[in-house]
User: What shape does this take?
Amino acid sequence: MSDERPDDARVRYDQARYVENGQYEPLLSEKDLTRVEIGGGDGDSDTEDGSPLPDDLTRDSLELPALSEPELARHYTRLSQMIYGIDSGPYPLGSCTMKYNPKFTEDVAALPSAAVHPDRSEDSVQGNLELLYRLQDYLGRIGGMDAVTLQPPAGAAGEFVGIRVAAAYHEHNGEGHRDEVIVPESAHGTNFATAALGGYDVVSLPSDDEGRVDLEALEAALSENTAALMLTNPNTLGLFERDITEIAELVHDAGGLLYYDGANLNALLGRARPGDMGFDVMHYNVHKTFATPHGGGGPGAGPVGVVDDLAPFLPAPRVRQRDAESTGDESRYELFEPDHTIGKVHGFHGNWLVLLKAFAYIARLGDEGLADASASAVLNANYLAERIEYDVPYGPFHHEFVASAGEQDAADVAKRMLDYGVHPPTTKWPEIVPEALMTEPTEVESKATLDRLAAAFNAVAGEDDATLADAPERTTARRIDQTSAARTPRLSWHHLEDDE
Amino acid sequence: MHGSHATGSPYAPHTEEDRTAMLEAVGADSVEDLFDVPAEVAFDGRFDIDARSERETRRLVRSLLGRNEELTELLGRGHYGYYVPSLVDHLADRSEFLTSYTQYQPEVSQGFLQALFEYQSLLVELTGLPVANCSMYDAATALGEAATLSDRVRDTTGHRVLVPELLREERRSTLENYVAGTDLAVETYPVADGTVDLAGLEAAADEEVVMIYAENPTVRGTIEERLEAIGDLAAANDALFVLGSDPIALSLLERPVDVGADVVVGDASVLGLPTSYGMGLGLFATREEYLRQVPGRLVGASEDATDRRAYTLTLQTREQHIRRERATSNICTNQAWVALRTAMHAAVLGPGGMVDLAERDVRRARDLAARLDEIVGVKAPVHDRHHLREFVARVDQPASAVADDLEKRGFAVHVVGDHEIQVCVAGVPDERLDRFVDALEEVIR
Assistant: This one.
């Protein structure tokens, strides 16, 4: 087909680039730096001109850019045009679930009635409490979990809650000696780091030949010291852990807990629930599965669901309905502290505005929409894999697949794909696939977009190493020197003044 | 047609024709065939969540949030409701900012990287410390990260972390969770009349201390007067001095580097976010020598293949996706978009505007305290100190009853003791403060 190897001109992609004096858009500090002197106050009889504080309690001066609003509007508009977002084109980053972020959720998050202080009385924020209660309930149903906390501000924070809850649970049962957490080698890096932050020794679990949990290796890894097994299902290869029931039995027989990393939940909405698979505790990545925007790295939210046995250990506070018998009104909500709570993992209630958007997304989609999100995501991944020339060694996969760039360098393939106007997949991971291209198109791409995305993969597959090494050439910046950035860290405009 | 609720997600654009062609291409009869889920764990898809139109969903959320009462919030204690200029909303909401991912492909993310580099630069200027990361979740988690950093960089057997007895319970609890996997123990030092009791701190500090934490301003709004002495005390014991603050306070108050701070944490979203039920932005800055122990993402300047300056995430070998269980933190998703908003807000204010804002909130807090002090049955401020934006007032009547009565009159204040309320002027217009004084007078009368 002619569109599988598009000529460069037709798919040529030139990202906006502003150049001034031979450099890209200048820093704010290169447009202006103004030093404001502070002081001259005695702290008592100050005038409007002098400082209201004695000089020994203040700094001497502050030097920052002082620019007009129109200048700033242009600066940030230009910066935005030098960014590729989900509204720019497909963004098939494996394990990241870069799906379209519905615009209306921004409007609900911007409602003035949502802007309340966390220390308000419960009676005066019944709207927040009811919405959070309903979101707890939604997430519980979606995950098959009995109780949910919304406090963790990101997926890794959710993992940390899971690990702390597991620790508290074991401690409570006189099993505080359990000091190991088992993590599959192909797991997300956060799993290892979270277990370590929780003070656990990490036991790494190899995959079997088919890319799934090796049951014999799991049996060998489990012991009386096992606190938990952290598992992603489908795993990072997109494969469902078919032996999940047996895995759950093995872990539970050893006295451990089974943790579900929710990064890949978009594969299973309405098809299977972690709670039904035997998981005891899970986190949800609402910025993945429930379409809240990634914002260039965050904020997200990582609510945690647990089975009944673990509910008393969840972070405080949670939201519940007030006892209707005592109040005569079952539509009132209150905060409460679980009996054996681990305490807090965020200064307040987590990323409220993100939770609000997730609630709106779930309420919009309902059963049919959620199930279709998964179905379409899985169909899209299968279709795309079928259309690309790179080998996909493991299957049957679901919402994502891991192709191999073969003799090519996966990182270079990614750089070259940028020139074709698409975002590349996650590269070089999981390591079980050589030169991995971990690809998750999500449900939001049409067949036509997937065809163009496949054409970009295939165009790059046919190019030589020199072309790849020179890529990208049509983006704002050309290939960036990572070694120099790390060898001589320049982390603020102050560092640049020193050097230049 | 696509997008109807009968066919599923309104954001999945497949036509029936597409679907058929795609299934044919992959050799499946139906989408169900693509799911490799054993029957014993399969789910029937019934969550009993009704789908709604966009308009109905907006109405639902508006109606739920309509249950929140409209109050004038004189609330602070770590979360503030400053006015955020319209430019911030409109520019930060551009979808390239809002819908992009972490900048793992810097060549197509220069705009966001530059904005984060400018944010880091803002923090470097405010703190005087040369290394600032591009965000933690909030002030409490940044404090937790500071403790684990202290544990890593201080190579002695010490295990004590000292925090003020007035530390917000929520921050203390978060810190306790962060250090639960270490052998660190959190202990308190005393506070006298709203600021550090230096003699008490001296008595508490010894060579077993790895970190001393102080806040400026304190949770009760007082400005610390002995920061340098705290810094000296930390240095004398080879402990890290971790200072909690925020960008508005830092615009005016003593520069952390000048008082010996090793790490600065706090909530940077006092600029950039309106009240948002406690959502924040963890500020984290430190000394050059701890660079390779810093948690979270760092943006650095480099060059591209045309020798033009370009930005990229750097020193990633500290992070979880490379270093796994030996990473400096487990943080991945952060608060980058909030950092963008903070940088925008600071840019709109400029240095003069930032200093003005801080100075005004010193004066406004002082003036309001003086007016409350004139009410019979109220003493304000309780602490004979300088304050920034908030202060504690003593009321003869039970504080909770006073707060309840104020709420009925449309004002929210903190209850911080049996006879103590705390009042914050941040973001509250002057005429509202006038009405608040009247309301308190009525309540106390």
Remarks:
- Residues 16-65 of chain B form one domain.
- The radius of gyration of chain B is 26 Å.
